[in-house]
Specification:
single chain, mainly beta, OB fold (Dihydrolipoamide Acetyltransferase, E2P), 4 domains, 3 helices, 18 strands
């Protein structure tokens, strides 16, 4: 089956004057127009393409890579606004429509918004929505603490950064858990820190528990090597100073120090830490 809104691996069936016809092996085919046909191809070989509907609402294939696919949430820019809604730039010739009814606030040309791409069951068209919450559900969670997840940052709140987890759920990164610059629309890895009784999810941008020891120790060790074997940081240093220099919390920094000290990689000096000569 050819999936609209997704990358498909299809077989090259035949070459025509308008392009290549590609098939899914089940009797369905789609045109890859000449402007997207690669220089080298062979009939019978497979090719990866993105499939969507063209201006005449016919399935069409392209080798261009879209900024968003069906089921995803991504930051897109408004290319145009007309009587139908906002048309988003998503890397293809035909823009992605966000109808007015799917806009949380009225969209403006040139502005950026996080949108969700979905298939409109009534029209069969790919459309976008800025009303993100209706596509997210924290009731049935197939997650557990320590799971590594993919995050999309969607908004800033009084407590921290709201994120979408694995394109399905909503979570929060508290400001005191952020040790690097992040922005709305960023797609970043994270970990499930805590699942609360009401199914609200706390997110960490760094590995948790014992998993944080080795990465933190390695980072401190590499920083020491890059700074002549000495750092003016120690377990009594100000948390903000540690955060600015190491992009980690003081608690994580102290655990990393402990690992390095036990392995006899460092010595603790009055005004900092020093590498032990091998």
């Amino acid at each position: 089956m050819i999936e609209i809104g997704r990358i498909n691996e299809l077989e090259i069936l035949r070459d025509t004057s308008v392009g290549l016809f590609l098939g899914d092996g089940h009797g369905h085919d789609v045109l890859l127009p000449n402007k997207y046909v690669p220089e080298d191809y062979e009939i019978g070989h497979a090719i990866e393409v993105f499939c969507y509907l063209d201006y005449d609402e016919r399935p069409i294939a392209t080798t261009l890579e879209p900024h968003i696919m069906v089921g995803e949430f991504r930051l897109l820019q408004v290319a145009e606004v007309n009587e139908f809604g906002a048309f988003m730039e998503w890397g293809l010739e035909k823009h992605l429509l966000v109808p007015f009814r799917e806009q949380r606030i009225k969209m403006k040309q040139g502005q950026w918004y996080v949108v969700h791409c979905y298939m409109d069951q009534r029209t069969g068209r790919l459309v976008g929505s800025n009303k993100l919450d209706k596509f997210l559900n924290n009731e049935n969670l197939n997650l557990k603490e320590w799971d590594e997840v993919e995050l999309v940052v969607i908004r800033q709140t009084d407590l921290g950064w709201e994120t979408i987890i694995n394109e399905k759920h909503k979570g929060l990164i508290y400001f005191n858990e952020v040790f690097k610059s992040i922005n709305i629309g960023d797609v970043i890895p994270g970990c499930i820190k805590k699942i609360r009784k009401d199914n609200k999810i706390d997110i960490s941008l760094q590995p948790l528990g014992s998993r944080v020891l080795e990465p933190a120790a390695n980072k401190i060790y590499e920083t020491l090597k890059n700074n002549g074997g000495f750092l003016k940081l120690h377990d009594k240093s100000d948390p903000e100073e540690i955060r600015d220099m190491m992009q980690m919390s003081k608690k994580t920094f102290k655990k990393g120090l402990g690992t390095l000290y036990k392995e006899r990689k460092i010595t603790l000096e009055k005004d900092g830490i020093a590498l032990v000569d091998d």
